[in-house]
Design goal:
With about 300 residues, the chain is α/β, with parallel strands linked by helices. The chain has helices at about 20, 30-45, 65-75, 90-95, 110-120, 125-140, 160-175, 190-200, 215-225, 255-265, 270-285, 295-300, and strands at about 15, 55, 85, 100-110, 140-150, 150-155, 155-160, 180-185, 205-210, 230-235. Bound molecules: 3-hydroxy-3-methylglutaryl-coenzyme A and magnesium ion.
Length: about 300
């Protein structure tokens, strides 16, 4: 049964980050054939955008050191986009060699996280990204931008909105087609989400990427939709986190998001039963239950 609320989009694009944000934070190294099956199951459940992996330094994120092998194995389906994270030109070379057509760069809104996650200063990160974006665009790639720590940072406290807007606008001005606002440590609340989106003034260029550390991700997402955003990042099963920000826990679970969106009569193109079957399968391999409330409520009832 659906009950609509005024002022929401008819359709939402769910940008699935489980294979990248989810698996980058697992202690165990997941075999590459399991990753390939995970991505394929997500496509089968109706996902049209699946962030598959990262071409970052393999010593920084050993969990995704098999990026080349994964992309070689992956049967890329027509109509499905498989973006990858790329921090620098070395990462871009690696992605181009595998025929990648879409990348995402990831900036920090704060000085401390730029140092911890990218080994760069706040200003220095742009010098790293600029040639990546220029070359990617020359090669016909689509480039997404992320900005992390948009509400707060574990070392610096609350992040001023104008600081986030300054970093984010620089990524859009470089040529990113979309900017994803990352609440890396999940400290945001709905009014803050709305204020940030309004401060950018272009919700059609924005996506939201909320981690659920404080249980606010779904409420913040609803506030973002009401402010005009229609692209939402989520991870099947609610896995995820950043190895360089300890207080980062799982992403908004795709299943929790889809339950809310379908209840609101918003189209996603996703099959909730198939998503739940996939995250239950993955939880079995990871050795722990999914934190998603919707998965807990519905697993085994399909
Ligand atoms: P660095 O140590 O400063 O690298 O790391 P460098 O430029 O000095 O290069 C040192 C050596 O590494 C060189 O080799 C490079 O070739 C090699 P040498 O010449 O000495 O033999 N190298 C590479 N090798 C393979 N692939 C590469 C690469 N780059 C350099 N791409 C760097 C700088 C950016 C590479 C490093 O800090 C890094 O990889 N960081 C990534 C950290 C990360 O992946 N974090 C998680 C993703 S972000 C996130 O989760 C947040 C998000 O979800 C949004 C949110 O939640 O807010 C997106
Ligand atoms: Mg993240």
């Amino acid at each position: 049964m659906t009950h609509r609320l005024d002022g929401l989009p008819e359709r939402v694009t769910v940008y699935e980050v489980g294979p990248r944000d989810g698996l980058q934070n697992e202690k165990a190294i997941i075999p590459v054939e399991v990753k390939a099956e995970f991505v394929d199951r997500l496509a089968d459940a109706g996902h049209q955008v699946i962030e598959a992996t990262s071409f970052v330094h393999p010593k920084w994120v050993p969990q995704l050191a098999d990026a080349e092998e994964l992309l070689t194995r992956l049967e890329r389906r027509p109509g499905v986009r498989y973006p990858v994270l790329v921090p620098n030109e070395r990462g871009l070379d690696r992605a181009l060699a595998l025929g990648v057509t879409e990348i995402a760069i990831f900036a920090s809104a704060t000085e401390t996280f730029a140092a911890k996650n990218l080994n760069r200063s706040l200003e220095g990160q742009f010098a790293m990204f600029e040639p990546v974006v220029a070359r990617a665009l020359d090669n016909g790639l689509k480039v997404r931008g992320y900005v992390s720590m948009v509400f707060g940072d574990p070392w610096e406290g609350p992040t001023p909105i104008d600081q986030v807007v300054t970093v984010g606008r620089r990524l859009l001005d470089m040529g990113c087609y979309e900017l994803s606002l990352g609440d890396t440590i999940g400290v945001g609340t709905p009014g803050h989400a709305r204020a940030l989106i309004e401060a950018f003034g272009a919700p059609d260029r924005l996506a939201v990427h909320f981690h659920d550390t404080y249980g606010q991700a779904l409420a913040n997402t609803l506030a973002a939709l009401q402010a005009g955003v229609s692209v939402v990042d989520a991870s099947t099963g609610g896995i995820g986190g950043c190895p360089y920000a300890e207080s980062a826990t799982g992403n908004l679970a795709t299943e929790d998001l889809v339950w809310m969106l379908h209840g609101l009569g918003i189209e996603t193109g996703l099959d909730l039963d198939k998503l739940i079957a996939t995250s239950t399968w993955l939880a079995g391999l990871l050795g722990r239950p999914s934190p998603s409330r919707v998965v807990q409520a519905l697993a085994g009832k399909g």
